[in-house]
Specification:
Blueprint (H helix, E strand, L loop, with lengths): L12 E4 L30 E6 L3 H4 E5 L4 E4 L4 E6 L5 E5 L2 E12 L8 E8 L7 E7 L8 E7 L8 E4 L9 E7 L3 E3 L4 E2 L15 E8 L19 E15 L22 H14 E4 L13 H4 L5
Parallel strand pairs: 1-2
Antiparallel strand pairs: 2-16, 3-6, 4-5, 5-16, 6-15, 7-12, 7-16, 8-9, 8-15, 9-10, 10-11, 11-17, 12-13, 13-14
């Protein structure tokens, strides 16, 4: 299989803290018989500031799980496990204010109903910002659902859900988030429409978090299918987290003085990327809060109706 760099322009100059070669098995850049460009929409920039997580021992902290989170292969892979007693999780040591983030995940195989595997960015405090990927467990043979949400100042209620049209448990796949002052793009686009009164994540630094936990009260078919603990322990695997981002340190950021060297900072969706996102939404969207008139009888949220230049 090709690496995620295949077909992209080679960078001419990089300010590199640590770089590791990503030997990708299957990535979502590739056009497969059943696949499409899913989450990776942006080419590697000619000049950028890269933080590459090569050694998970040095770059993440296990935050909970009492031994259920394990770093393997000299720091190259981290596995999270869930049993009836507890799940597990980890977070990045660094905090970020804007960036492009990639993570390779291999989800829980077989009957994972009731479980949730997460990969997200989140700030601290009671008025937090958050950008979510939540992969909902499924019965063997059923399609996997990815649940997305965007929180601003502690307010979410911006759910969108999609079926995955490939097997996310058979191999590693790369999932990406772009977060810049103009918009947020995972498998959806959340535009900055602050002039219309919608808060946007711009002032609070965020860490990357991942976890595996039990949510059988709602995760699979609305909670109708419960976790089968005879299948435990459930295990998800993570590798090659890369943050091409503004890393916050001692109250300052390398992006504060010169953003021109970081093209992702002003990256927009071109027409091709917009068509690909639309293809995903037309064919695999399960739920869209922007279409839920029953939930919002007084009118859809402002960000759903405002037209932007992106």
């Amino acid at each position: 299989m090709s690496s995620i760099q295949e077909g992209l322009a080679k960078p001419r100059k990089l300010n590199v803290l640590r770089v590791c070669q990503i030997k990708s098995s299957t990535t979502l850049l590739e056009f497969k018989a059943s696949g499409f460009l899913f989450l990776i929409l942006f080419a590697v920039a000619p000049s950028s500031f890269i933080v590459a997580f090569c050694n998970l021992y040095k770059d993440v902290d296990v935050t909970w799980g009492e031994g259920r989170a394990k770093i393997l292969n000299n720091g190259k892979i981290l596995t999270l496990s869930l049993d009836k007693a507890s799940g597990s999780g980890f977070q990045s040591k660094n905090e970020y204010l804007y960036g492009k983030f990639d993570m390779q995940l291999k989800l829980v195989p077989n009957n994972s109903a009731g479980t949730v595997t997460t990969y997200y960015l989140k700030s601290q405090g009671t008025s937090w910002d958050e950008i979510d990927f939540e992969f909902l467990g499924n019965l063997s043979g059923d399609p996997c659902i990815v649940h997305t949400n965007v929180y601003t100042q502690g307010k979410g209620n911006r759910k969108q859900q999609f079926y995955l049209w490939f097997d996310p448990t058979a191999d590693f796949h790369t999932y990406s988030i772009l977060w810049n002052p103009g918009h947020i793009v995972p498998i959806r686009e959340f535009n900055n429409v602050e002039p219309f009164g919608v808060p946007y994540p711009k002032n609070q630094t965020m860490r990357m978090h991942s976890s595996l936990w039990n949510a059988d009260e709602w995760a699979t078919r609305g909670g109708l299918v419960k976790t089968d603990w005879s299948q435990a322990p459930f295990t998800a695997s993570f590798r090659n987290f890369k943050a091409n981002a503004c890393t916050w340190s001692n109250g300052t950021s390398p992006c504060s003085s010169n953003n021109n060297n970081k093209p992702w900072f002003s990256q927009e969706l071109d027409s091709t990327s917009q068509k690909k996102l639309q293809w995903v939404q037309n064919n695999y969207m399960v739920y869209n809060y922007c279409s839920d008139t029953k939930r919002f009888p007084q009118g859809l949220p402002v960000e759903c109706t405002v037209r932007t230049n992106n």
